[in-house]
């Protein structure tokens, strides 16, 4: 599905949108629910990634295909590794077969797991023979993906003696590790994270309880971008959010002050309001703690004619696509002066945006969603717009509600 987006008449936005549960919290809780059936989950994400996770956890088939879902791939690797007596071949989309898994597989093998590669060494598909793990100490590299660490933490309390993890090197995406630990704490699973050591204590059962998933902050980022590009006085209410979030992407509230967006926290919702013009100074941010909002912020800067220097982007190369290259290529088509390295992005300010450019999305939901707000400036085409369902089922309906006109486009 290719689409053309434009805005027919500028008007002040004043809308209320409900966003589905965080896919990160949901995919952790789905694994935890399998290990602790006493818990129930509310406001579960309806994302494709969470649907993949649910299917994977309920099927009895040997072959389990999780599509593009990084968290499902990584979290299920540990889950199946300790599922004694079960043999599983875990695979995913073509892109997933090029997203590295070796660091996690090596850590699990060090603990005694039986895992082998079905095709390319270091990448899915992997064959996992579920085994009983008795070791309780492991080292793992922390600078490639925090998902490997969360994966071990999720199963840790079910190991006989719990698990102590020593993180080697710089640690990336730390809020996601803290999210995992906070959810464990919520379930009564004791843990501590000190310096580069994490310890999770064993737990056989927890109390019957409902865990409520906060809505997805990465999904909220697109509304921050839209409000930034809107008339002063425009506002959007998003449900269901809270001030004390487990999601690192809630740093959006602070970052988007640069674009004149004020966030107010209500009872279970946030309101984003454009209160003043954007600050035209260069935006300098290290995003190692919030990599998923890099695309949104870059496009907001481009649309607002603001230069930016984004650093801490070393994980972007191994996400749904190489997001640094994708941003570079698509923004260049729109007329931007942009340069990227393997871990950073520099965008010059420029006051020209080319019209009617067809944005390629590279099977990456965030490419489609990050570029959509540009429609508030110029007509823009988005190719393979259906990719958004990886994390956000009703994204295009919500864009229509905001006032973006969407029509089919024939290539
Ligand atoms: O644990 C998680 O839920 C996630 C961790 C991050 O990945 P990395 O740790 O690989 O950066 C993030 O980009 C991803 O969307 C979700
Ligand atoms: C990187 C992402 O997801 P995953 O790694 O779980 O595929 C994302 O949603 O931006």
From TrEMBL:
Biological pathway: Metabolic intermediate biosynthesis; chorismate biosynthesis; chorismate from D-erythrose 4-phosphate and phosphoenolpyruvate: step 6/7
State whether keyword Cytoplasm applies.
yes
Q: Family assignment?
A: Belongs to the EPSP synthase family.
Identify the enzyme class.
transferase
Q: Which reaction does it catalyse?
A: 3-phosphoshikimate + phosphoenolpyruvate = 5-O-(1-carboxyvinyl)-3-phosphoshikimate + phosphate
Q: Which Pfam families does this entry report, sorted A to Z?
A: EPSP_synthase
- Supply the gene name: aroA
Where, by residue number, is the active site?
Answer: 292 (proton acceptor)
Function text = Catalyzes the transfer of the enolpyruvyl moiety of phosphoenolpyruvate (PEP) to the 5-hydroxyl of shikimate-3-phosphate (S3P) to produce enolpyruvyl shikimate-3-phosphate and inorganic phosphate.
Cell location: Cytoplasm
Family annotation (HAMAP family): EPSP_synth
EC numbers for this chain: 2.5.1.19
Q: Which residues bind 3-phosphoshikimate?
A: 23-24, 28, 145-147, 173, 292, 319
Q: Where is the Enolpyruvate transferase domain?
A: 59-399
Instruction: Identify the PANTHER family for this entry.
Output: AROM/DEHYDROQUINATE SYNTHASE, PENTAFUNCTIONAL AROM POLYPEPTIDE
Chain positions recorded as phosphoenolpyruvate binding sites:
23, 70, 99, 147, 323, 366, 390
For this entry, the protein name equals 3-phosphoshikimate 1-carboxyvinyltransferase
Describe its partners and assembly state. Answer: Monomer.
Keywords recorded for this protein, A-Z: Amino-acid biosynthesis, Aromatic amino acid biosynthesis, Cytoplasm, Transferase
Cross-referenced PROSITE patterns: EPSP_SYNTHASE_2
